[in-house]
Write a structure and sequence with these properties.
Residues 1-18 form the signal peptide. The protein is largely without helices or strands. 11% of the residues lie in helices and 0% in strands.
């Protein structure tokens, strides 16, 4: 890396010094070139770079032993799963309806004769003529087929 930097720096200095002179100007051109000094910092490193180890993540697998059944000389009773259902009674209080007897004084209406008139004359107003103007220049109905 250091050799590459120094090579680039030397090539840059050689290129900047190999430009044509300031007095040279081709015919028909009337421009002038201006140059500004540019400060280049040179860092000098002494010694050989030491490569440092880079941490690489390695997956760590943890093996957990799973117990497996194996044959034995003694018979071992295996537990049998039996579902247990339990009925829980909930007490719900419901009000019981009962009759209440209270003496309420009320009057009993006795029947009396009622006369019903079946024919009642209702006055009906008679129609009367109303003047409706009819304009001949206005079409009141659509012409043609309906």
């Amino acid at each position: 890396m250091i050799a590459f930097r120094t090579t680039v720096l030397i090539a840059l200095i050689a290129y900047s010094s190999a430009r044509p002179s300031d007095e040279w100007e081709p015919e028909g051109h009337s421009h002038s070139e201006h140059t500004k000094p540019y400060h280049v910092t040179v860092i000098k490193k002494i010694g050989v770079p030491v490569p440092h180890p880079v941490a690489v993540s390695v997956p760590q697998y943890v093996k957990i032993p799973i117990p497996q059944p194996y044959p034995v000389h003694v018979t071992v009773e295996q537990p049998i799963h039996v579902p247990v259902y339990k009925v829980v009674h909930q007490v719900v209080e419901k009000p019981v309806p009962y009759t209440v007897e209270k003496p309420v004084p009320y009057e009993v209406e006795k029947p009396y004769p009622v006369e019903v008139e079946k024919k009642v004359e209702v006055p009906i107003p008679k129609p009367y003529p109303v003047h409706v103007p009819v304009y001949k220049h206005i079409y009141h109905h659509k012409g043609g087929k309906h």
